[in-house]
């Protein structure tokens, strides 16, 4: 009875048709929006993965660039610290790792000559371990080589960002000074060729892992007078 009355009423038929059309359009719009959201979400996941890989890659390279005690040799020190090509004598040579991207620049070594060393110390102190002393004996031989004997060097101490900044700065200073003292007293390097400076935790090599061992290092930088 109701259907018969509806079919006999053109205005009511138009209202029903309009309602059906509106429902269909609403469904299609919602489906289209859902597909767009899924597409955007998928692209966001891809971008996030790409960014993570891009950010972590310099940190991995930075770790690979560190000379660990067992890998330190006289030849490695000579190769890392000997200036190559024309030298601007108004420039202090040394790769300064100020952020994660500086690790990428370190691979080209176009701006300077440095040797980041993973020298170990006794916990929370500036006392060199036996392994560190053995490695520094090789460093001393490299600094006395014919290729490096005419250069001066800056010894930089670095600490990881754990702990108070002031304590990290002091610790990095005393560790750099300990390396200089060993190289002069035990390694026979003239004191006038070496200077030490503490960097604290201001120049980490690995931003992804603040506690990474490469953030606790000593860097030797060739200085051109």
CA-CA gap between termini: 106 Å
CATH architecture of the largest domain: 2-Layer Sandwich
Determine the mean pLDDT: 76
State the low-pLDDT regions, or none: 49-63, 87-111
- The overall strand count is 5
Number of helical segments?
Answer: 6
CATH topology of the largest domain: 60s Ribosomal Protein L30, Chain: A
- Outline the biggest β-sheet: 5 strands, mixed
In CATH, the homologous superfamily of the largest domain goes by the name OmpA-like domain
In the CATH scheme, the class of the largest domain would be Alpha Beta
Q: What series of H and E elements makes up the topology?
A: HHEHHEHEHEE
Give, in spatial order, the strands making up the sheet with the most strands. 1-2-5-3-4
> How much of the residues is beta strand, in percent?
5-15%
> Which bin fits the share of residues in helices?
40-55%
**Radius of gyration computed on alpha carbons:** 32 Å
Overall number of domains:
2
The secondary structure category is alpha/beta
Task: Sum up the overall morphology in one term.
Answer: rod-shaped
């Amino acid at each position: 009875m109701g259907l018969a009355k509806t079919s006999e009423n053109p205005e009511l038929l138009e209202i029903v048709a309009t309602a059906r059309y509106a429902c269909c359009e609403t469904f299609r719009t919602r489906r289209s929006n859902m597909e767009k959201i899924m597409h955007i979400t998928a692209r966001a996941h891809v971008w996030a993965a790409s960014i993570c890989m891009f950010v972590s890659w310099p940190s991995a390279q930075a770790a690979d660039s560190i000379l660990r005690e067992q890998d330190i040799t006289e030849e490695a020190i000579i190769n890392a610290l000997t200036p190559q090509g024309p030298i601007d004598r108004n420039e202090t040579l040394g790769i300064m790792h100020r952020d994660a991207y500086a690790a990428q620049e370190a691979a080209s070594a176009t701006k300077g000559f440095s040797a980041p060393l993973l020298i170990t110390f006794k916990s929370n102190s500036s006392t060199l371990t036996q392994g560190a002393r053995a490695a520094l004996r090789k460093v001393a031989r490299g600094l006395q080589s014919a290729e490096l004997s005419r250069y001066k060097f800056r010894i930089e101490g670095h600490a990881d960002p754990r702990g108070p900044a002031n304590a990290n700065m002091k610790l990095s200073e005393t560790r750099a000074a300990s390396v200089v003292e060993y190289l002069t007293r035990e390694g026979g390097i003239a004191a006038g060729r070496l200077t030490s400076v503490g960097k604290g935790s201001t120049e980490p090599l690995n931003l992804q892992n603040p506690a990474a061992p490469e953030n606790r290092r000593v860097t030797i930088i060739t200085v051109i007078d």
